[in-house]
Amino acid sequence: MRALKTVILSAALALGIGGTALASGGVHIPAQDWPHAGVFGTIDKQAAQRGFQVYKEICSTCHSMHLVPIRTLAGIGLTPDQIKDIAAGYEMTDGPNDAGEMFQRPGVPADRFPSPFPNNNAARAANGGALPPDLSLIAKARVGGEDYLYAFLTGFEDPPADVTLMPGMNYNKYFPGHQVGMPNILMPDGVTYADGTKATVEQMAHDVSTFLTFVAEPHLDARKQMGVKVILFLIVFAGLMYATKRQLWSGLH
Amino acid sequence: MAQTTHPSGTGAPTAPGGEGTSRRDFLYLATGAVGAVGVAAAAWPFVDSMNPAADTLALASIEVDLAPVAEGQSITVTWRGKPIFVRHRTAKEIDEAKAVNTAELRDPQKDEVRVQKPEWLVLIGICTHLGCVPLGQKPTDPRGDFDGWFCPCHGSHYDSSGRIRKGPAPLNLAVPPYAFLNDSRIKLG
Amino acid sequence: MSQGHTSTFKNPVVKWIDSRLPIFTMMHHEYNEYPMPRNVNYLWAFGAIAAVMLIIMIATGLVLAMQYAANTAIAFDSVERIMRDVNYGWLLRYLHANGASMFFIAVYIHIFRGLYYGSYKAPREILWILGVVIFLAMMGTAFMGYVLPWGQMSFWGATVITNLFSAFPIVGDPIVTWLWGGFSVDNPTLNRFFALHFLLPFVILALVILHTAALHICGSNNPLGIDAKGPQDTVPFNPYVTVKDLFAVVCFLILYAAFVFFMPNYMGHPDNYIPANPLVTPAHIVPEWYFLPFYAILRAIPDKLGGVLAMFGAIAVLFVLPWLDTSKVRSCKFRPIYRQFFWVLAIDALVLGYAGAMPAEGIWLLIARIGTTYYFFHFLILLPLLGKLERPLPLPASISEPVLKGGGHVAAGATAKPMEKA
User: Fold this and answer.
1) How far is B79 from chain C (nearest CA, A)?
2) Contact A23 C258 (CB under 8 A)
3) What's the predicted TM-score (pTM) here?
4) Shortest Cα–Cα distance, A124 to chain C (Å)
5) Phi then psi for B63, rounded to 5 degrees?
6) N or C end of chain C: which has fewer CB within 10 A?
């Protein structure tokens, strides 16, 4: 009867795999080496901090990240004072004040990252009809996750001869359908990293993908650390239960 | 159900007593103890999820700019869901508050211990009687008999230091934890 | 006491309560001394595993409901607040989301165990039917729960599934409008789904109690499918089966924890991390894996009403299964021909599930049609005929006979001895 169990469990897994493979649209996304992958992997905080710089200086001109409070940055190793300074660098719209008007004030860590456009329609209007997606959950909202983000950011190229781009579109070999409104935005030395890392396109794509993985799942490290403990505990407990069961049932035969 | 079938009491053909029994009892005990620890540990996330969340805690301390508050004026700010009264006291109000003989008070407290700078009085604006919000913040409000606040619910009068002077409230208006960051900015909480 | 229940418990408080409300006697009877066939294997633990999953789902669901906001404007954000800000919110939500899948895994194994060992046959027909009702209630609960995060799959899943009812002539459209509380899936729909999603688990719990009551009247089936003849065939439920079931539960929890902590989104769909957008349909709408076989049956029929009827029919045949199977022999162990077909059905269910995840075109549509045909053939034609044509293997005289391999004696402690309440 173990066969029955195995068949059904593996089938459940196989179905999941089936669904994933299907949704990737036939384009193979190369897997990258991520320090946060695997059972014991944790977010590379230095890379995430660099990735935040890329987000702040490049991505955030078009993309919002409106679900993420600025205080979340504590998770990539920034100090409270650094976070306070980062927050104060943003202008937040608040109000209405006593005169009934909205006003601008410097941000505080409890604020969420401000959006570049007041609403989706404004974002579309400014971007040729295409809506730059919110980045809060982008690493979980795309098949392939951070591998896809990296592939997408490094996947811009000239269209093959048989492809005619629609006006305002760009060719990306990993984007489903290949025609995407977003231009190739990462240029070598597009940012100047504070820690002296050379800002190649691959480096920036790697860093910002790490950062976006973090903001999509700020408790990623805590989750895995707890998981190791929980599973070790359950294995010990299962061993004890099994010994108890054997001991009890041994009296039956 | 404790008196019913005890595990070790059921069907054990091995000799009663002796090493086998104690090892078996230890096994049962260890399994039970590990299980109990597991259940207790699993319960904690459920309990803790009902504690204040990170977004609530992030607003547990706020900064207030005092610069726009002119002498004699008051502002009300919300802190941890409660109204905080900040009054820029006049010299007259300060003198009144200092002149009071604390021995006569229901809740004896010197004005000096209730303020960090005499001109700034910071209070939790909740009547210590039954939790109403006293009047006295707006210029048009009644301020009670002692130039402070008056609670309309049951008629408690507070003085210009927020101390209870008349009416049913047992205690002075509470002073929240705060600190001056500079001359015109305080941090609540 | 001349009136009331004569309690044999010693503890005075327990005795006082028990003689007025014999709940302790009932618990003792049902969960301590309940005689369990001693030859049941670990597949019999999946009922207990499913019950544990139900309790975990209700517990996590309760605390999640304290943080969730059932309003289309903020539902998605409130779920993200749970994931980011609420203490252990990420853990509780992943436990709940993956728990639904684990609950279905346990229940599917439980159902197939019942199919293999003929646990639906007399006198356990009502027990089986209650189980199918639980299964239906679970499907409804899971479907409505999936709508609550208000992501793209939530919205479009809700739209597609509620539109099934529009297949019915005349009453179809008014029913759909009524289900929605409007002219599309919108805030009223989300609100009522939340209310029902909160209610239904307690209905399931009540059904589980009835299911257990029916089980304890008939007694548990066992791998041989023959009735227990006496104490030598059984063991008292506690401690033997409780400990065995708990061991199985802990092993199952390891699998569950592996999903929750290391691949929490594996069984979900990335599109559900995109807020619902009524103007854009995702490229592939795929239901959660546990609905896929039924989804394949729905799409296999080229007619709208026909597909809906076939899908509901796939569950309806389970209700009449006890009367479709004409064989008097319960366990597949003694049904050499039917045993082969059982595995064909199991594979058919998997193939249908796989086809349900694939686009409904080309070869997959053909496979889904063959799978659907076999599914109904199996229940409606094969089972009634096979019961009459098949020659079962000889049944053993009693459960203890093969256990003892024809000799030896029954150990003194092995029997379900009369209750020792003293």
Assistant:
1) 19
2) no
3) 0.88
4) 15
5) -105, 140
6) C
Contact status, residue A55 vs residue A65, Cβ threshold 8 Å: yes
What ipTM was predicted for this assembly? 0.89
- Could you tell me the two tokens for C141? 């609960």
Please work out, in degrees rounded to the nearest 5, the angle formed at the alpha carbon of residue C420 by the alpha carbons of C414 and C422.
155
Contact present, A199 and A126 (Cβ < 8 Å): no
Other beta carbons less than 10 A from residue A2's beta carbon: 9
The token pair at A116 is 């570049």
Longest dimension (CA), chain C: 76
- Is the bond preceding residue C239 a cis peptide, omega within 30 degrees? yes
Distance CA C12, CA B103 (A): 59
Cβ contact C87–B53 (<8 Å): yes
- CA C321 from centre of chain: 16
Mind listing the pLDDT tens digit of every residue in chain C (422 residues)? Answer: 457 788 888 999 999 999 999 999 999 988 889 999 999 999 999 999 999 999 999 999 999 999 999 999 999 999 999 999 999 999 999 999 999 999 999 999 999 999 999 999 999 999 999 999 999 999 999 999 999 999 999 999 999 999 999 999 999 999 999 999 999 999 999 999 999 999 999 999 999 999 999 999 999 999 999 999 888 899 999 899 999 999 999 999 999 999 999 999 999 999 999 999 999 999 888 899 999 999 999 999 999 999 999 999 999 999 999 999 999 999 999 999 999 999 999 999 999 999 999 988 889 999 999 999 999 999 999 999 999 999 999 999 888 875 545 444 444 344 433 433 33
**Helix, strand or coil for residue A94?**
strand
Q: Kindly report the three-state secondary structure assignment for every residue of chain B.
A: CCCCCCHHHCCCCCCCCHHHHHHHHHHHHHHHHHHHHHHHHHHHHHHHCCCCCHHHHHCCCEEEECCCCCCCCEEEEEECCEEEEEEECCHHHHHHHHHCCHHHCCCCCCHHHHCCECCEEEEECCCCCCCCCCECCCCCCCCCCCEEEEECCCCEEEECCCCEEECCCCCCCCCCCEEEEECCEEEEC
